[in-house]
Design goal:
8 helices, Rossmann fold, globular, alpha/beta, seven-stranded mixed beta sheet, single chain, 18% strand
Amino acid sequence: MEQQKPLSDLLNDCVGTEPTNSAIIASGGGTTAEVYMLGAKNGWIPGVDIRLLISTVEGAGCISKAKNCGVRTVTINRKSFGKNQDAFNDEIAITLDALEIELVFLAGCNQFIRACPGIYFANNHPAPKETDGGRGMHDIMLHEHVLMRIKDKISRYPHMINEVHRTCVDHHEAIPRDRSKRGMDIGEPLTTAWVDIPPYIISQFIEGILDLRSAAKLLQQHVMRYEYASIISNAIMDGMRVRDAKKYGIDMGGF
């Protein structure tokens, strides 16, 4: 029987001896992307080497954030490809392949990204992706959607206003393994971090003290800490998944 490794060796296995070559694809201001980049820069995401940020929008805020973190940037402007989605994705694939990228984090990316051989794609979604995911569900809008869903439930079952309502941060594979599926936030779930919503946000929204936008901003701020913790912890595990896929020949969809 194989002897169990010492705990220190098991912990070292979590980060590996060779960092996983990683990239970020973003489309906006880059707040989420910055969490990944600062996490890697400060050693909070061991085992992951972020080599590149691809912006799908010319002049997006994520570009300056990447430069401030010392991360190389490339702009592949989706608009410049017109209706040719395939050409856009071809350019993405060529750019990733040139730097031998194995792991890609989608961070506020609003474009459909095609699977690339040998590359694993992951995404963090700060709400339940089954009910509050898909195209258009980003930034403050998804938190508004969460609140309206809860309000609708309470309107049908008034006693539920006194219950603890929850949202979550879903971490999932960004590209579905079933290639017949196409859309946003439909990849296989990896982890879910449940977040209890402070009761005052719900009660004041239902009573009209807070309007929808104000309540959603408070919810966004509350969820944000859990979202960032999820990004850091899951990035470590995503790196492990890639290394295991290479070591054991596991088909992870993109591989």
